[in-house]
């Protein structure tokens, strides 16, 4: 994420974050399918299926890390594969909104100003409100799949659709956010959509596993008969809303700091504030509420997401007011929302 600050303008960052995150969701979609295939390799060449999974999924990361070390530059100005004319063009294009390859390191004064800026803590609070749903989705997905009646390898296939849908929703939402220069509003809507997914799960009966027609033609009729449109649909809505909310959130916060060194600190703090939220997301799903459908977990996530949605809307209105004040003073608006 820090690298994007050096190579992309503010109106381009959400889309680039989206591609990073969307490919993570796509990996999640393929992960289920890959696990389904590798599951049939158990004891092949004397190795267990889980060992094959670690080898085949870890090998591309190890090999690509070597290429990244030699190919990825620190700044566009230091890219060895760009001509001098291209470097000047990149620097001119980014100017005040991108690369600061020649700037001095962060001073203690800049660090203090960054740490004392209340606006940024509002961003951190919003990110905290979104974070629990990530671990909750990871935790609750197996429960939903188990409730659908899928077992063993077929259960892996059922994890594919939520991530596949999230991929396309994330890319489209981020494209729209950058195109209309409206990251806060798009994050707000995405949080509301995700909250609706959790609210639907909370309102559904614990045994809401009924189907009216064959939903997946590649599965047997007996398997389809146990498929839950309702709860599984809420899972898809929740996953799409979560992944779609993150790129505009990160694009917004990095666009409202003055230097790239400060942006690096802000991103680190943002992730640090979000991490405890993922811990919360695990503990709010109580084992003794399984028969009830985990109402505490669903309602807690719903409330936190609505809090984040309100925060996104509030910051958007605040930044608009600040820009209006700057315009009245004859200054250039510098806040992005």
Topology:
Layout: H1 2-7, H2 13-38, H3 49-71, H4 84-94, H5 108-115, H6 118-147, H7 152-157, H8 160-179, H9 183-203, H10 221-224, H11 229-254, H12 260-283, H13 295-328
Task: Explain how this protein is built.
The chain has 337 residues and is mainly alpha-helical. It has a single domain (7-97, 108-328), classed as Up-down Bundle (Growth Hormone, Chain: A), CATH 1.20.1250.20. It has 13 helices and no strands. α2 runs antiparallel to α8 (160-179) and α6 (118-147) packs antiparallel against α11 (229-254). 36% of the residues are buried.
Keywords:
transmembrane helix; mainly alpha; Growth Hormone, Chain: A; 13 helices; membrane
Radius of gyration, whole Å: 22 Å
| DSSP helix fraction | over 70%
Number of domains: 1
Structural class: mainly alpha
Order of helices and strands: HHHHHHHHHHHHH
CATH topology: Growth Hormone, Chain: A
CATH class: Mainly Alpha
Give unreliable regions as ranges: 209-216, 221-228
Q: How large a portion of the residues is in β-strands, by DSSP E? A: under 5%
Question: Distance between termini?
Answer: 18 Å
Broad shape: globular
CATH architecture, by name, is Up-down Bundle
> CATH superfamily, please?
MFS general substrate transporter like domains
Give a count of the beta strands, DSSP E runs of length 2 or more: 0
Largest sheet: none
Q: What's the helix count? A: 13
Mean pLDDT: 78
Subcellular location: Membrane
Membrane topology: Multi-pass membrane protein
InterPro entries: MFS_trans_sf
Keywords: Membrane, Transmembrane, Transmembrane helix, Transport
């Amino acid at each position: 994420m820090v690298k994007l600050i050096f190579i992309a303008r503010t109106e381009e960052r959400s889309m680039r974050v989206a591609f990073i995150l969307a490919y993570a969701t796509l990996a999640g979609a393929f992960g289920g399918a890959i696990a389904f295939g590798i599951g049939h390799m158990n004891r092949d060449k004397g190795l267990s299926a889980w060992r094959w999974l670690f080898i085949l999924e870890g090998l591309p990361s190890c090999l690509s890390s070597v290429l990244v070390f030699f190919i990825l530059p620190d700044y566009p100005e230091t890219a060895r594969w760009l001509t001098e004319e291209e470097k000047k063009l990149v620097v001119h294009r980014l100017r005040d909104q991108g690369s600061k390859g020649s700037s001095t390191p962060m001073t203690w004064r800049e660090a203090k100003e960054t740490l004392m800026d209340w606006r940024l803590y509002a961003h951190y609070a919003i990110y905290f409100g979104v974070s629990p749903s990530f671990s909750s989705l990871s935790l609750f997905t197996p429960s939903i799949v188990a409730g659908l009646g899928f077992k063993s390898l077929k259960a892996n296939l059922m994890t594919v659709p939520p991530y596949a849908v999230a991929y396309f929703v994330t890319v489209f939402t981020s494209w729209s956010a950058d195109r209309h220069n409206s990251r806060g509003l798009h994050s707000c809507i995405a949080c509301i959509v995700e909250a609706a997914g959790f609210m639907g799960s909370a309102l559904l009966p614990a045994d809401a596993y009924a189907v009216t027609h064959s939903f997946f033609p590649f599965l047997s009729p007996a398997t389809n008969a146990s498929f839950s449109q309702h709860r599984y649909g809420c899972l898809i809505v929740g996953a799409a809303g979560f992944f779609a909310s993150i790129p505009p959130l990160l694009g917004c916060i990095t666009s409202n700091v003055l230097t790239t060194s400060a942006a690096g600190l802000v991103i680190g703090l943002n992730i640090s504030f979000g991490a405890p939220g993922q811990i919360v997301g695990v503990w709010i799903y109580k084992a003794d509420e399984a028969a009830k459908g985990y109402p505490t977990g669903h309602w807690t996530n719903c409330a936190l997401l609505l809090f984040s949605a309100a925060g996104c809307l509030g910051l958007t209105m605040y930044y608009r007011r600040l820009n209006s004040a700057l315009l009245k003073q004859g200054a250039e608006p510098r806040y992005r929302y």
